[in-house]
Amino acid sequence: ITVNNGAVVKGDSGIEVRAGSLTVNGGTITATAESYSYTANGSGTTTRGAAIAIAQHTTALSVNATLNGGTLVGTEKIGVTDVNSNMSNVAVVATESFTQNSSIPAGYKWVETETAGKYELVAEPFAIHVHGASLVTEGKIIIRFGVTVPEGSNAEKITMSLNGRSRTVSVNSPDTVISGYGYAAFDFAVYANEMDGVVQLTVEDAEGNALKIQRNDLSVVDVYEYSVNTYIENQTNNQGAAQKLKNFVAVMKTYGEYSKYYFENRTAEISLDDTTPEAPDDNILNDFIAEKHYDGGYSGPQYAGGSLALVDGTSIMVYFTGDVEGCTFTCEGNELTPVKNGSYYYVLIDNVAARNLDKMYTITVSDGYGNTHTVTYSAMTYVRTVLNSETTSRSLKDVCIKLYDYAVAANAFFGND
């Protein structure tokens, strides 16, 4: 179809092209609909409110539109839609004035051609496609990005960063592959006190040049951003999400808020929002009292207490006094290395998963002479100690209460209760 000077065309959309060619050299083309909208349609028109509407048909036949001149009247002068999510072989060239009042799909842009004043619609190039992100709570709280790399991409490395920390990984060395989808997974650990922090993911080529990222909505960006709180908000608003998941992420968010408050106010005697959370019953916490056993001839280091590292994941530290030379420390078949800390030594049970926060771990110390000393300890043992202490700060007690709530919610979600 060619439209020349003198032509007058009117309709909900002036002209809609679903396949074939259109050239506009002149005339007046008017969209009479008061607003711009479009709806998928396998056999008719799709668009309202655009003087020139381009919506490729489900048959994916090629579309060519050259808009040289004339008068276009409508909410949008040009409305290009990928209404059937199959847009390919669509070529649109238009004057600059037409493109300035146009609607085009995410992932496309107008690029000036060699002909002055003419612009062509092109797909924005990208180096990787990020399908989205999810959470993993097996130890550290991890944001897991699902990525595919298109054939021919020059992407070399992915960098994820938050609060001055960063992790750079080769695109060819993902942490795992997301089952059922085949996406490469790239992980970044987030501390409990930075759940509202936005992780930024970028991609570079071998020379360190920044490359583009395509989001799942097909928009192309320089930086892909995500936070734990984004995941929590998405699940909270997801009508299809299980109630156990919604409960779990709601408690996780509260734990994060109290954790942030604690690390910013370690000695505070006033609770977050001046509201003291309800502590668990003493009878419950009594199930987590540390238990100790010594063989009669044991001569090695003695249990001296425990603590938690709450910054990077949740890790249990069990302390001992005495000489550790010649002794071995084991837990669940794994040998632990004692670390000197002042006059004490501690062993670390690293990155306790959310579902295992109430698990009693048994540490066995052998003195090298066939005698052993065993200690059972859990994250909840530390919570009990803090809540029964008269000297710990209100902010530490509060975050421990919320850690307990997080453990209960995790057990309910993962099926441990």
Task: Record keyword descriptors for this entry.
single chain, 417 residues, alpha/beta, six-stranded mixed beta sheet, 6 helices
Tell me about this structure.
- The chain has 417 residues and is an alpha/beta fold.
- The chain has 6 helices and 34 strands.
- The protein has helices at 96-99, 228-236, 243-264, 282-285, 379-387, 394-414; strands at 2-3, 8-11, 15-17, 20-24, 28-31, 37-38, 47-48, 50-55, 63-67, 71-73, 76-81, 90-95, 102-103, 108-112, 118-123, 128-136, 141-148, 157-162, 165-170, 176-178, 183-190, 199-204, 213-214, 220-221, 224-226, 291-294, 302-309, 315-321, 328-331, 334-336, 339-341, 344-349, 361-366, 372-377.
- A 6-stranded mixed beta sheet has the order 1-4-9-12-15-14. Strands 20-21-17-16-23-24 form a 6-stranded mixed beta sheet, with no helix packed on it.
- Helix 2 packs antiparallel against helix 3 (243-264), helix 3 (243-264) runs antiparallel to helix 6 and helix 5 (379-387) runs antiparallel to helix 6.
- The radius of gyration is 31 Å and the shape is elongated.
- The model has no long low-confidence stretch (mean pLDDT 94).
Radius of gyration: 31 Å
Give the low-confidence spans.
none
Give the helix tally: 6
The amount of beta strand, in percent, is 35-45%
**Cα-to-Cα separation, first versus last residue:** 69 Å
List the strand order in the largest sheet.
1-4-9-12-15-14
Q: Averaging pLDDT over every residue, what do you get?
A: 94
In helices, the fraction of residues equals 10-25%
> Biggest sheet, open or closed, and with what strands and sense?
6 strands, mixed
Overall 3D form: elongated
Classification by helices and strands: alpha/beta
- Number of DSSP-assigned strands: 34
